[in-house]
Amino acid sequence: MKQQLEAIKLAAVEAINTASDEKAIEEIRVKYLGKKGELTAILKQMGSLSPEERPVMGQLVNEAKQSVEELIAEKKAELSAAATLQKLKDETIDITMPAKTAKVGKIHPLNSVLDDMIDIFQSMGFDVVDGPEVETDYYNFECLNVPADHPARDMQDTFYLGENLLLRTQTSAAQIRTMETRKPPIRVICPGRVYRADEVDATHSPVFHQIEGLVVDKGITMCDLKGVLEQFAHEIYGKDTKVKFRPSFFPFTEPSVEVDVSCSECGGKGCRVCKGSGWIEILGAGMVHPSVLKCCGIDPEEYSGFAFGIGLDRLTTTRYKISDIRLLFENDKRFLEQF
Ligand code: DAH
What we know:
Number of strands: 9
CATH superfamily of the largest domain: Bira Bifunctional Protein, Domain 2
Distance between the termini: 87 Å
Number of domains: 2
Number of helices: 12
Shape: rod-shaped
Bound molecules: 3,4-dihydroxyphenylalanine
């Protein structure tokens, strides 16, 4: 039994010395000192010894147990200190490392041009209003004096969602909603998305952006229209930009104009951007048609107004010299990060 005890003790000491972590030490403790452990088992065999041998053997076993316990405690302390040291080492922060730069989002070029436009119009006393992108035929066409047989109603131009429901083709629809809910004096702009069943290419997209403007009050004339739009063009393109009003036609305005600005790329000499003409068209406008005022319950004998619709996408591509309108909608980060 003595030899057996020696062998167990030797094996335990060997195991403790080679244990590499706290988990291994715990396994050793259970193996030798646990309830079913090898040293405990030896104590249980004491009954087979003679009464003289029993206390001698008992003492030896207890001594062995005690020294194994001590060794285990020592090793445990040693391993735990080493583990703490390792952890500290692993978690050391190298303050000389370069910091990670946080990526900050950019303002989309369409939004930054829109923000500038809103600033300009707000400084002239305009409110910003919103209108729905899903519209009825009434707001998008009928009340805007677009007769039922007008080509703009053709399925090729308009995305219909139902017989009377469509994706608005122009922010002009917001004019009607505004005149229905506000009393003159009215001075609003309505920026937003519009939709047309156009083929996609470098200058066309089935979704694009307009900013509608509407002014209604007593005594509003074409001079007010010219003053406001000239001021706007000068603020957006610079004081030296020339502004040209050309007669045009829109069903909801009479008279109607289209407004061109001198090409900012070539200064009016003619280039690829302005297709050689020296001018770039930026908006349509006119005096609100009396039928439109009437349709909204405003007396055209008492009130008059002007309206305009500016294309935001063209303004953005010319300002930033973006060659393809599709870039504005693809949301490619490599493109957007440049602004
Ligand atoms: N709605 C027109 C279009 O999409 C633009 C426009 C022209 C708006 C004249 C107006 C306006 O308010 O008076 O082409």
